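New to this. Please check this protein:
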Amino acid sequence: MKTTYCPWFGALATLALLIFFQSSTAQAQGTAFSYQGNLNVNGTPANGSYDMDFTLYTTNVTGVPIAGPVTNAAIAVSNGLFSTSIDFGNAYSGQSNWLEIAVSTNGANAFTTLVPRQQLNPVPYAVTAANLSGVVSAAQLPATVITNGASGVNVSGTFTGNGSGITNVPGTLARVVASGTSISAQPNTAYNLTSSSLVTVSLPSSADVDDVVQVNGTGSGGWQVDARIWTESTSSGTTNLDWTSVASSASGSDLVAVAQNGGIWTSTNSGITWTESTSSGTTSQYWTSVASSANGSNLVAVADSDDDGIWTSTNSGVTWTESTSSGTSRQEWTSVASSSSGSNLVALADAGGIWTSTNSGVTWTNAIYYSSIPLQRWQSVASSASGSNLVAVSAYNPLIWPSSSGTFFRSTNSGVSWTVSTTSGIIGQDWTSVASSADGTHLAAVVPFQSSYLGGTIYGGIWTSTNSGVTWTEQLGAPTSENWCSIASSANGSNLVAVAQPFGDQGGIWMSADSGVTWNESTSSGPTGLDWESVASSASGSNLVAVVDGGGIWTASGGFTKGAFNEGIFNGQAGSSQEFQYLGNGVWQPLTPSPGDNGQGLTNLDASELTSGTVPLAQLPASVVVNYEAGVTLSGTFSGNVSGLNLPSDIITNTETGVTLSGTLSGNGSGLNSISSSALPSNVITNTETGITLSGTFSGNGGGLTSLNAASGLSGTIPQSNVGSTNSFTPIIGNGSANFTTTTQSGNYAKVGNLVYFEAWVVWSSKGSATSGNIVVSLPPVPVASNRAAFNVGYCSGITTAGGPPVAFASQSAANITIGFYSSSGISNVQVANCGSSGELQITGVYRWQ
């Protein structure tokens, strides 16, 4: 801003005070302009409120006013400085202009005119442009101004607005030749994809309605367009929690997530809003895993703590109930999975086995007692929709768990029996997550990258199976330097999504639409660099949800309209082209066919996609029979009303009597009566007949059978109520030189065939003074020494060892179990000195007793 200074002036006759004034010009705004000045009283800067009159003249003295006076009342003056706005309207016609100012104390109405007048400088004077009239000739315009009808014009840059009147434009879309395999598309752009590999094009996350993206598969690898956009939930309370697991219903509408000491949260609108459960006991658990039925009603969650267990909900997470099934409350649960109905459940306990339930979690059975599978560090489990096909993975950590092999275990009978996978390369890996298709044939698993592990490097990766886990293949199209944490699958196994934490690489969310052969990282803003912990998928693969450790909940939904396009992925073959139009609210529409095209040139159309219209008779095959057609000959089996047919005389009609038939008859004979038993074949058994001998395989209720032989190959599990009164024993903890004072000594066992399944529980409140001797716990009925099997320490406290968690084993000659721990030289016995004055010990196992 340009500034001018007014000279000092003499005393004013009408004022007792000597007033001085200093002014500066102001910037014009319309016809009004701002005026700033400096008001002094007797050489001292003024303070207070003043009224000012402003009058416009064409001369610096005398003359006739051309505008004003304009009176501005109560102008605030501080330390002499003031600012006010003056509007004389369109008073400027090109002449010189001078401003006369009169000042009065506010409300006194005694104005003193200040001298000299102040000349208005060009800035406020520029408002004269508003008074222009007439037409400026083209000769007066700069040479760079483009006028209507000009030719030979060359303009470059970015243009906006309505271009509907533009003609002879070679193309309305910007053209991009893309050679990569992952493209982040921009609005109103056409992409020529030249790669020989599958190309994934992510549609813009921000676009205007009617924006278009065109994809042309000029390369040989084909292409797919992904319209799923990841966004973080802003629902209150969901950010900055230690999220550990998330699960989805088949539709993707009902979601459930759990956090360590952060509660259980559910959403019924695909993750837009979330609600924390207020059910008693759910807010302070160390939750590790959660699973959902297909409809989202039946939920199951597990926790990893000494006193935590398995919790279930049958009303979409509104209320929760902890299982009271024996053995479930003192396990370090790591993972849980559900069938589509929610009836068949499977859960993993770290070093505690695989547990299954067939009644929605009311009761649980330990499916593995380690008689055939060594102790494992169980990490993740997945289930088919039926609950029959199961797959579990364990971690490899020979220092702490020497027996944990780090491989896959699969079951095809709902967990009754398990088989270890022996595919080359999968054993000895630190597996973290596994996922299954609905039929259980397509499986996928991840192992994280570890730069230094036990003196070597374990490269991460993604492995898949297409035969229910019999064999596995490493997918070389997936990065090996990612710290993979979780993977999820669509129902058909085609759409996969995996998340990784930033360790070896930058982490992020990766997706595959071809069963894991090729992978592309999400280009949505935000997912890279977060501590992703778990991910889940809807049945179609269109709705995805993922959680961050110490962060929030993110969701991605399919962005296409109707039919097959509702999965968020649009697949195209090499040589094909497609346009996509943005409809708003995150929804894109594939233009098939292009607007204005009657579709005559389209091929490979799917008749199942017809939704309206009628097919003309002329376009039907000649073999199609139409109504009222004559001369038709048909063969085969027919049903329906034949009242209009002319039937032969030998046809038997309903309720006809006196009919004699011979031969072999089949069908429902419920209406036949008076059949004599003498007319039946001699080998037919009648009711109450005795002395019958049958052989073969029988099924049904055998409650009336007697004299059954238990050694004749019984299968299944004998109910606890049928085991008899000899199913309990009193375990005693001690050694040869010191005894423990016990407050609880309980044990249960069941004989099934020649096997004994048992559980022993001992709680001691004090111990003797001896410091040497091995800790032992007595067994139920003494087994044959050469037929011992596996034992497991399910829970302990009050025992301190330097070699990791205690383990149980038995010598070949003693009728008790010795407690030990793994060390570098093998198993070392736990001594009395390792035990505190009080503690607890739980041991389970199985062995042969005859």
